[in-house]
Amino acid sequence: MSTPGSAVAGVPHLDVDPFDMKFFADPYPTHELLRETGPVVCLDKWKVFGVARYAEVHAVLNDPVTFCSSRGVGLSDFKKETPWRPPSLILEADPPEHTRTRAVLSTVLSPTVMKGLRDRFAAAAEARVDALLEQRSFDAIADLAEAYPLSIFPDALGLKPEGREHLIPYASLVFNAFGPPNELRKEAIARSAPHQAYVTDQCQRDNLTPGGIGACIHAHVDKGAITATEAPLLVRSLLSAGLDTTVNGIGAAVYCMVRFPDQWQRLRGDLTLARNAFEEAVRFESPVQTFFRTTTREVELSGATIGEGEKVLMFLAAANRDPRRWDKPDSYDITRRTSGHVGYGSGIHMCVGQLVARLEGETMLSALARRVASIEITGEPKRRFNNTLRGLDSLPVTITPA
Asked: Most exposed among 16, 191, 200, 315, judged by the fewest C-beta atoms under 10 Å?
């Protein structure tokens, strides 16, 4: 890390570990410290630069030439060490390679495709709410936030019914692996073999049902848009991007609704707010908390000089609550204009599964709001710790039918 240079440039140093359990339990005081210390900080623990204000996070996300992804979007630098798995052709790639593969995913996940899935997703959301109304008391994570996406997304993708229990652990592994070599990362990788084997197998053309999103990706091989080696890796991208972000997003939305009952009643009074209620939950809770980039040249960012080959850690969650950008950032308001939040990233690497996430979040929230009068927490919510994601492991609730 270019510490001498950064000292000259007056970049403040902070002794905080954004991958520590204490930080994960309550990141908000540290987010404020990071934002208020300066536009760019040095994080001594991992020898990286950090940006936590909205303007700088947005600037880094939208300059992929200077802040590249191909050297890894985690702490590990692919130029200096071997990646733990073959790099993603989407997340861990730069233009022009990224442009070509991204175009394929944008086609198979286009607004038109989503429109075709809407009725199926809405019917599945209604069915899930029916089942929950019979139970009355349940775990909003396992029985709702996980159960709903698992009941539709793997089918839409064209996965076989058996082995789907590997999907959530696989996604959680991918996001833990972006972190430093701490216990979370070591344990995740040590346990990863069966999950990786399942995913590699499922992404092959012969194992995907005809007509599903996965098969549509492979069909682009025939058109010459991608190679037969690239197709399974693109299907893999959807398995990690299309599920956990949605699970944590829906979990976040329900958690917001139980803590802000006035907003729940507001949604019940106007179901057209469902989509924005989900969007505001993504801003407010930021299921994806952080991502790294690596500098391709010496660059000046808000007065700080950063050398070539430096890791820059973007605190997406801190940017999403930056008072410089948002009015009353720490309140959950379903009528807020949320556009511009970086919960899905921004720029060319914006989350490829975001349309799926938004469709699932919106259909589930409107199904709940139509049928449920109130949601109450009936037990201690438990966090699920992950190096990159923020979400709950358990949220015991009781619902009252409308």
From this structure: 191
Average pLDDT for the chain: 95
Tally of residues, the chain: 402
Share in percent of the chain as helix, strand, coil (round to 5)? 50, 15, 35
Both tokens of residue 340? 């511009």
Mean pLDDT, range 57-79, rounded to an integer: 98
User: What are the C-alpha distances in Å from 388 to residues 43, 174, 248, 288, 316?
Assistant: 17, 9, 12, 6, 10
Residue 9: per-residue pLDDT: 59
| CA 82/CA 87 separation, integer angstroms | 10
Q: What's the distance, CA 201 to chain centroid?
A: 24
Residue recorded with tokens 């939950």? 281
pLDDT at 1: 54
Instruction: Give the pLDDT of residue 385.
Output: 97
pLDDT at residue number 243 = 87
Bridge partners, residue 12, by sequence:
none
CATH number for the domain harbouring residue 206: 1.10.630.10
How many other C-beta atoms can be found within 10 angstroms of the C-beta atom of residue 350?
13
Domain that holds residue 384: 3-401
84, two tokens: 């733990």
